[in-house]
Amino acid sequence: MSIFGTENEFDYGVHCNSVVHESKPADEEFNITPFPGRQNGYFSGGDKVLNNPPSHFYSPPESKTLLFETHHVFKTHADDVFMVEGNLIFQTSFSYEQNISSGSSFISSSSNSSNRRTLDFHFRGFWSRITGKLCMVGKSYAYSKEGKLLHLAAVLKINNLKNSSTIRTLVTGTMDSLNSVDDPNYFERISLLMFPQVNYTYTMVSKQFSEGCSRGTNVQPELSLRLLRTGTICDMFLGGGNAFELEYTGSCKSSKSCYPFGDSIGYLPSVMSLSMIQCSNDRLSLRFLIEFRNNSYRGYYGSPNISTSLIGEGSWDEKKNRLHIVACRIYDASSSLEKSHKNNIFVGYFS
């Protein structure tokens, strides 16, 4: 299979057969996909082809957002190997300021969507349901800083793409240029990180509920979280991130003893944001990306610093008006997103 005519350097087999061997597709389209129709994620790298111009108010975020759109999945003549077609869309944006209102724990924000930049790759390749690996070849177009049209060709390799997932599952991968280093169409490696959404099982938060959630700080009823009679906990977190100012007890003198990341980032965070990733079918549980920041700046499209974030799942306790969250730390995201993995479990309670 070649995406660029018969040029061998862009053949699937040359770049991907060692990952998932190419197989002849059948006519029947399959209803099981490695991703939902639209799968969100994050990436690092790609500054050359994404071409964000520097300015006095903009600095590139440490991680940026992506979207994988699955268009078609076909059975093949090989068992548990499927041909996949889709688009991988990279998004970056300028930063803007979120203002913390006096006396309020929430952060309000404003932004300009015209500052958004995208790069759209069309990919085709094969996914192994057994190994969880997906390999694809694709192409896109972009402009250089000098305004010249670039013809981009790439190979996409994704790992850990299984039929089911839990809080400890991370989908990671890389996208590499198929052009030589001295070619003007060449770009450096882009690393990818995604939180899988297909057949997710809430394992940790259900365990905490079965063991009882007796810990936490008592909050006055008029100050606690409350749901509308017709609403659910998922409704509360729809529409983007919800950010809260952090208050520390008098005994907290350093980030080492008061913060999940210790002294590794060099500051004690002042803001925590909860961004919903997914809601359960019964709308009683949900998944979060929990980010800790030291200021009120954040990119328009929610480009968090993965190195200072937790991935968690939560459930609402109606009797106590309390949200129970169990979260994992994401390690090694600062060096390269495709090397990221989870470890350490943290339990939190929000009233």
UniProtKB/TrEMBL annotation:
Domain DUF2921 span(s) in chain numbering: 13-191, 236-345
InterPro entries for the chain: DUF2921_N (IPR057425)
Residues annotated as transmembrane: none
A UniProt-annotated Pfam family: DUF2921_N
Domain of life of the source: Eukaryota
Official protein name in the record: DUF2921 domain-containing protein
Species this protein is from: Gossypium barbadense
